[in-house]
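Researcher: First entry.
Model:
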Amino acid sequence: MAERSPIPEGTKRVVRRRCGFGCVLCGAPIYQYDHMHDWALGGADDAENLTLLCASHHEEKTKKLIPLEKVRRANKDPFNRSRESSPAHILHYFGDSFEVILGSLRFTQKLDAEGACKLVSINSETLLKLRLEEGNLLITLKLYDVRGEPLVTIIDNELTYKMASWDVEFIGRALTIREGKKKIQARLAFGPPRLLNLQRGLFVHRGLRVEVTPDGVRVPNHGISLQGGAWTGVYGRGIVAYDKHHSGENFDDAFLIIPVDE
């Protein structure tokens, strides 16, 4: 048997985009590349012969519990292609403590019973929040694209992402969303039960932007940046950015306060 070579990255990107970045049968964002005509029987590694299936549907197809014709039909009309957002994917976080990495900044905290931390807030809008409910660590996160449109949303551990993105790739524990070749808009690495690593992303509220990059956190166009640092303790808020219209609010429970003059 010939040695199997990796599927070219460009080919995989074409398949992901055609299939709506998820299993063509159910839309699940964790998927495998499937040769509709089996590779072992001479199926090619080209985009026309490849599709995306979740592990469950892939196994069913391998065991011939799903007819090949059904997979081919779904490949032509993938589950996600008619949707604006992906189906919700559940993240498995639990326990009374968390560790969140934002670029080069690290936040850790143990939450009190029914406690919460608004880790990133812009003006009066909370865009990253962690809370404890009946032993479950629940994450809420809102990331935006460069036009200020919702890109990635997590509501109490239910993850969805925008289907109109140029490319969405979920490999291992990392979700990467691109606006073009080598242009990453968001990258998150999930480490249940307590770790969330946001390596790149954009928070937006009414025009005020806070950007996370591998170097740290910055406020574009205002010359404000935070690089490195670790914060541990009990606090109600982590990073708060605000403009002059919200300067009268009380942010005493925040670890990092970023006032922006506008």
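Researcher: Second entry.
Model:
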Amino acid sequence: MSNGLLRIFCVAVFFLYGCVTGATTDRTALVDRISREGKLEKSSLKTSSFTLTAYSRASRPGGTLNLYIEGDGSAWIIPAWRSLDPSPRNPLVLEMAALDPAANVAYLARPGQYPAPDSSRVDPAYWSDKRFAPEVIAAMNEAIDSLKAITGAGKINLVGYSGGAAIAVLITTRRSDIISLRTVAGNLDPEAVNRFHHVSPLTGSLNPMDVADKLKGLPQRHFIGPKDTVIPSFIASSFVKRAGSPDGLEITVVKGASHSKGWREQWKLLLEVPLRSPAGIED
């Protein structure tokens, strides 16, 4: 690389770092405001692999916890360049949690998202190729145990958005206290999604489609957007068939929704959509 190109590269990196630092501050301020309005208290949960950020509120000890799992966030700047900060630019999932009228509600961020100032640096691989790695699932699972203790909750209704849906599925197969699953624009088969977009497969990650059959009998609801260009609609259809429901009645198409738009405005109504039980009886 010539001296001129090297100088340009260094300036670009310095500029990008400054932008990321400012953006991180702005994003943190925004989520703190949303959490205050939703009466959600912030926690830093230390696990065996990561320190994870969570927000929660609880007013019914022993009741059910509605737990929201964040999506992949701002994992990439461009397809070939990983972000320095995967915190979501659009705090959709936290807003959904804040809107949830349930007595016990929690939101759980992914590794590297909204990091505490004193937390250890997270390898960017954990918001790219290894975002669904076994150690990530184990850490998220540990954090859920902590959130149950914080809120005093008994059972859990899981809600996963985008890549958070993959995490939710993989966690559900490891626990006995999950009583329902909702996914929103869920990446329920990362291998198929990557093939669809003609991008390289993930390395070091688990695929929720491989354990879909273990969710047979679990009340669930999968919301998809007809304008979603990120997660094609056949992903949810394939997943529920693998989970033992050939008719796909657990899928709800949300009018006007894309991957990131149209959910916030309709979320309270969508929470009222019944979940289908194993016997086909709506709860």
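Model: Note on the second entry: The radius of gyration is 19 Å.
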